[in-house]
Amino acid sequence: MNNNHEEINYHTLIDAQTWRFIEKTGEWFPPDAVDLSVERQREIYNAMCREFYQGHAPGIVSSDRVISARAADDGRDAYPVPLRRYCSSSPDNTAVVVYLHGGGFVVGGLDSHDDVCSEICQSSGFDVYSVDYRLSPEHVHPAAFNDALMAVETIAAERSLPIVLCGDSAGANLAAAVAHDVRGRKIEVAGQLLIYPGLGGDMTNGSYVSHAHAPMLTTRDVLFYATVRTANEPVLHDPTYAPLQDTDFTNLPPTVIVSAECDPLSDDGRDYRDAIIGAGGQAVWINEKGLVHGYLRARSSVARARQSFDRILQGIAMLGHRQWHY
Questions:
Q1: Does residue 169 carry a catalytic annotation?
Q2: 326 lies in a domain?
Q3: CA–CA dist 127, 93 (Å, integer)
Q4: What is the pLDDT of residues 232-251, one digit of tens each?
Q5: Of these four, 67, 78, 161, 267, which has the most CB atoms within 10 Å of its CB?
Q6: Catalytically annotated residue among 112, 130, 169, 210
């Protein structure tokens, strides 16, 4: 592992198409955005998402609702959680997908990943549910996890179908945390597909050091989001916060992890795969060469990103049909 970021030549690793995507992103959401107020970060993030928005895939309709807050009998706080459901004109009722958006637990929502969710629905035929969990700093950990879990519990009770948990970045963290939490319960998780996940790895080693200054996401950014998420209070030994902090990786669902090579979070995917396989489970880690954090928005303009998104779509369909091709 190369721990000296100065030795990494991103102009060699990253192709011209991806550089154009990085530059366009920077025009809307600059590299120093974490120095802005959270309110301003959300404004420019939402504007960036609108710039890259590709609309709904053909044949997909969506509808919004809010899960009614319920009195929690297990000590968890309850809170109204907006959901957006995507349905295909050619439905496949083998499974449903629960999608949790990225954004560092600080930005993002139903609209930021609307087109991605519609494409997942079109490709798989599965109904897709996008979860608008609460954001930090207004709602610190475990608010986002509680909302994600409540959404999965509600969907599982209503649909009685296997669930594919899916998310990117912060949302992938939440998807994995839910997968850990529901083990041994009556919620049937067919699999999880995690896209450039941040799972709570050691930020003093590996890709957190070698890719500390990567385009699109730096280790400094990761530290900022972690601080905001917890109001600067350390969280230890809590897999609802960081799945890699768990001590038990048995009985997890089949897991596909898709990371970006040029991303401080990339080794989290490798380490999570190793933990699951070491506990006797099924997991694969795909580290996409030359890609950067947030490349889902580049899927129509960057060939590498499109190819990766195709692999993601194939993985979701595979997991929903209880297959394993790796």
A1: yes
A2: no
A3: 8
A4: 999 999 999 999 999 999 99
A5: 267
A6: 169
From the list 168, 263, 268, 271, the catalytic residue is 263
Residue 176 belongs to what H/E stretch? helix 170-181
**Is 293 labeled as catalytic in the residue annotation?**
yes
Active site residue 263: yes
Distance separating alpha carbons of residues 292 and 227, to the nearest angstrom = 23
Full residue range of the structural domain in which residue 282 is found: 5-320
pTM score > 0.70 for this model?
yes
**140-184 pLDDT, tens digit each:** 999 999 999 999 999 999 999 999 999 999 999 999 999 999 999
Rounded Cα gap, residues 25 and 30, in angstroms: 7
- Signed CA dihedral, 160, 164, 170, 176: sign only: positive
Distance, CA of 260 to CA of 108 (rounded, Å): 20
DSSP state of 139: S
Asked if the structure places residue 132 within a domain, the reply is yes
Identify whether 325 is part of a domain.
Answer: no
Q: Encoding tokens for residue 62?
A: 């969506």
The active-site residue out of 113, 141, 211, 293 is: 293
- Residues 275, 101: Cα–Cα separation, whole Å: 24
The structural domain count of the chain equals 1
Q: What is the CATH number of the domain that holds 21?
A: 3.40.50.1820
Give the chain's end-to-end CA distance (angstroms, integer): 25
Helix (DSSP H) and strand (DSSP E) numbers for the chain: 10, 8
Is 307 contained in some domain? yes
